[in-house]
Amino acid sequence: MSVIAFASDTGVWLLSTPRTSYALRIDATGAPCHLAWGPALTLEEVQEFVTEPAPPPSSFEGRPSVGDELPVDGGPRYGPPSLQVRFADGTRAFEWQATGHRVHEPAPGSAELVLDFRDRLHPLRVALHYRVHDDSDVIERWTVLRNDGDAPVALQRADSAAWTLPFREDYRLSHVTGQWSAETQLRRDVLPFGETVLTSRRGITSHHANPWVMLDAGDATEDHGQVWSAALAWSGSWRITVQRTPDGRAGFTAGAGHEGPYLPLGPGQEYTTPVHAGLYCEGGFGAASRAWHAYTLAHVLPHPQEIRPVLYNSWEATGFDVDEAGQKALAARAAALGVELYVMDDGWFGARRSEAAGLGDWVPAPDRFPGGLAPLAEEVHRLGMRFGLWVEPEMVSPDSDLYRKQPDWVLHFPHRTRTELRNQLVLNFARRDVAEWAYGWLTRLVGDHGIDFLKWDMNRAISEAGWPDRGEGADEVWTTYVHHLYDVVDRLRADHPHLRIEACSGGGGRVDLGILSRTDQAWPSDNTDAADRVAIQHGYGQIYPARTMAAWVTDVPNQLTGRSVPLRFRFHVAMAGVLGIGGDLSHWSDAELAEGAGLVAEYKRVRHLVQHGTQHRLRAPVDDGPAATQYVAADGSETLLLVWQRTSPHGRPSRPLRLAGLDPAARYREARTGTVYSATVLREYGMQPELPPGDWASAAVHLIRVP
């Protein structure tokens, strides 16, 4: 149960989640300062943390760089500020003055604390929000800033929250890095002294980093140890600054935006930062991931209870060579395979015959779809599948009717080159007329054609983020763009409650808690090579649940890597998330179609475990040995074990895999062989899944509790 308590004599606030505590107070200067974040404490125990700060040892030190709830630029503070403002008179410093607090229940099972402040001189108000839930140890934090004056204020930095860790002898930082087609590569490194900055300056979450961090004392494992982590719910540019101070403390601050642009806050205007959610847990990185997965299912996704369907996507089969007859033929083959959602990808609209033209002209190509999309949609529905469509609403081709009509709609600086990437430019979604245009054609498209699913893509990052009409306020584009994107998606879903959406940006360029709060799944990478996907999916799953992770089975040799692996291996890798198929079914042999149909049916029997069970990473993809992950039903009644092994070198001893999360008193029968195992043996001594001989071996083991 979550509780918010206050000690009026010491000014201490204590937020209690089911297993953890978070404590803070307002110090003598009026600033909110951190006290504790970790194992559960009582309000009486927290009082022991209340001490007067020692004076700095020298005139060069100032206020400690770690320890404020929202470090500001002002006074003797020399660490990275979470809040940087510039007032109309040129003043940059902010001085805290507490003005009150509020505690309320925004929803059953949730509690929220709001601490209100203002600057001591200027009419800038700052409200720090903290929200806790009865069913989660995740604490949600965000900040609201309001200009109550008659002069503008420039927000040079407005982070959502800063987090402080307890003292440890050492610290380690976990995060992901990568690039297009190689996203979410997990890194765990000793946290260096000084400041470590993780960021995206691209206007999207990015392929190169993701807005979450985990910190530990360097001794945590997958199953043991204390882990502190946080994730930012934002789909634009962002920045996380992690500090390790000379006196041995560690903390981090995070928020929307990158260095350089500032957010203008006019008289009477208010700015709400995105949520920055934090989690402390014991039980290692695995327990942290499971807590994030549960939180995402309970408090982020719009339809968490749903089972995501098996989908087919036409892209790798057809490329831009799309027409009604070809799509109907593919749909028939997909339906026979057991597919439940058929998605037609790029090439169905305007003059779209290649990457060079057509984006922005969202009308079915009459030479390819003479009767519009209705005949194809009706045929897909007749075959018993839902119908989906690829769209890229934020982009325009210079060779398009839209661009010829509205060249000022793109992001650009006057008298500067408009850089084309993938032969396209970025529409300025910060403009209300552009966002309204996108919403208008999207809602008509979905409503007129009975579309059940959209794959919403964005195939280039933002550059030349100019808005000439805005003059000095043009930097607003970085935040308003994202807010208008969210608004279009929200309105579209309100118009069409049956509609489901996949977030995509050339693969994993837009995956975060912000976009997942209004979509149903995400595309982690354009790289569908099963061997590469094991590592990509391993990093993705550190924070985001398998229920959100789209994974395709595609043809070999793989289009990107040229690698060939067995169909069974490709399916077993894709079965670790939301299964999709992207191969050219017209070229699959009868044997491949039969094997594929069998594996689709197998996935349907276990997908409730993948999409709604708890995940245990039994062995990471750290070498050529087996990688393994396990999904367990909430009641321990059944489990799925997936194992992938790249090579089988001669002489290497096989390693049993110790399973987790099972009912210790139960016995489990393997669905395929009928073999019965005791939970004690599986948990303490392990099992050796039967893998076929040779390289690229894999197995899916479904165990069901014996009554």
Fold topology:
Elements: E1 3-7, E2 12-16, E3 20-26, E4 32-39, H1 43-46, E5 83-86, E6 96-104, E7 110-119, E8 124-133, E9 139-147, E10 153-158, E11 161-164, E12 172-177, E13 185-190, E14 194-200, E15 212-216, E16 226-232, E17 238-244, E18 250-256, E19 263-265, E20 270-272, E21 276-282, H2 284-299, E22 311-313, H3 315-318, H4 324-337, E23 341-344, H5 374-382, E24 386-391, E25 395-396, H6 401-405, E26 425-426, H7 432-449, E27 453-456, H8 477-495, E28 500-503, H9 513-516, E29 521-522, H10 530-540, E30 550-553, H11 567-574, E31 578-581, H12 590-612, E32 614-619, E33 627-632, E34 638-645, E35 667-670, E36 676-678, H13 679-685, E37 697-705
Parallel strand pairs: 22-23, 22-31, 23-24, 24-27, 27-28, 28-29, 30-31
Antiparallel strand pairs: 1-2, 2-3, 3-4, 5-10, 6-7, 7-8, 8-9, 9-20, 9-21, 10-19, 11-18, 12-13, 12-15, 14-17, 15-16, 16-21, 17-18, 25-26, 32-33, 33-34, 34-37, 35-36, 35-37
Helix pairs in contact: 4-5, 7-8, 10-11, 11-12
Sheet with the most strands?
A: 10 strands, antiparallel
Mean pLDDT across every amino acid position? 96
* Range of strand content: 25-35%
Helix content: 10-25%
How would you briefly describe this protein structure?
This protein is an alpha+beta fold and 707 residues long.
Notes on the structure:
The protein has 707 residues and is α+β, with helices and mostly antiparallel strands. It folds into three domains: 3-299, Beta-galactosidase, Chain A, domain 5, CATH 2.70.98; 311-610, Alpha-Beta Barrel (TIM Barrel), CATH 3.20.20; 617-705, Golgi alpha-mannosidase II (Immunoglobulin-like), CATH 2.60.40. Helix content is 20%, strand content 29%. The chain is built from 13 helices and 37 strands. The strands form seven sheets. Strands 6, 7, 8, 9, 12, 13, 15, 16, 20 and 21 form a ten-stranded antiparallel beta sheet that branches. An eight-stranded parallel beta sheet has the order 29-28-27-24-23-22-31-30. α4 runs parallel beside α5 (374-382) and α11 runs parallel beside α12 (590-612). The chain is globular and about 80 Å long.
